[in-house]
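Bump. Still looking for MFS transporter structure tokens.
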Amino acid sequence: MPALGGTGALGRALSHRNARVFFGASAIAWTGLWIHRIAVAWLAWELTRSAFWVGMVAFCDLAPAVLFSPIAGAVADRVDRVRLTMLSQGAIAVQAGVVALLLAFGQLGIGLLLVLEVVGGIAASFSQPARQSLMPALVPRSDLPAAVACNSLCFNVARFVGPAIAGPLIAGYGVVPAIALNCLAYVTATATMPLLRVDAAQRRGHAPGASLLAETLAGLRYAARHPGLGPILAFAAVASVLLRGVQEILPPYVERLFAQGPDGLALLTASIGVGALASGLWVASRGRITGATGLAVGAVGAQALSTAGFVATDIFPVAMACGALMGAAGSVHGISVQTLVQSASDPAMRGRMLSLWGMIVRACPACGALALGTAGELFGLRWPTLAAMALALALVAWGVSRLPRMAAELEGGGGAQGGSDLARR
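Sorry for the wait, here they are.
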């Protein structure tokens, strides 16, 4: 983190003590999270040799966001966000520790693994909006866009760098150390929260003015009515279903398409990580919101084409190159969308909008993974994946047709004013 402090927008964000503590802990926690996901996916594959069960493990981890993320966003807008973050992150650490211990003593089957992944998914649904809603309290208002970009960079780079660490770790030492490392990562992140110097007024969104259900529904209505946020979130949700499932169930692709084991998984995930890191640094260092909508839409097209290349080839080095492009495009898309959501949301609705973004990046890949895993058992992995990529390109065409209106609402300032009006209704 300090090494990035001298570069443009990242330098502005990381010049503040609170931001350095926050983003350092975020990078550690999210890297541990993605290490854990690759580890349990490989474990499910070793236990069952079934793409369906690998998809089911991803589904149980990510799908709780459908039910709990909107509620968690409303909770984050009305309680002490620092305390909620500590409780939810602590729960994730405990879950990972239990999985590692049960596995180490040979007491973990596929059924119990599914149950524990649901528990971890619920905790993560509360952690995400609570933690990210703290960002406006960490830096001056003038540096908030840079902080949003840095936060997005941490998440999206960890989303690919974590698996790049997991591959060699699993190949050399097995699944248990990888899952235990996630436990340690979340213990570390939880321990840093008291180090943040956050004003009491910034720790809580607002005093409860209605029931939790009413505020949850108000957040959903706000997103649906917002002329910029509604379309970009819908676009990102469909794109995540179509594109992200591949990376949630990599082990079957690695073994069935390329006849590779854990070493091949390590090489592929490292390639994805390199691509994500390079593009993530570029997007975060731009330091401006102008053009972010176009990047969000165009990156989906690039990711669809690179994923199609990944499954169409039989040559593993070509697949690695496509993996790097997948990682680069996914990072550009994720950073751009999250920056737009943070910037265009009314402050009173920020926690709820971030919870919807959290639901998209968790629940939608889960649905895609389950669908691809099921189709993979019936038709093989290649053709269902190519069909999903064709649908993703059709989605890009729709996004391009809506691009001028979305960009005007999300980038031009009108969206923020319109969002304030919507929040008051």
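The chain is about 85% helix and 0% strand.

Edit: fixed formatting.
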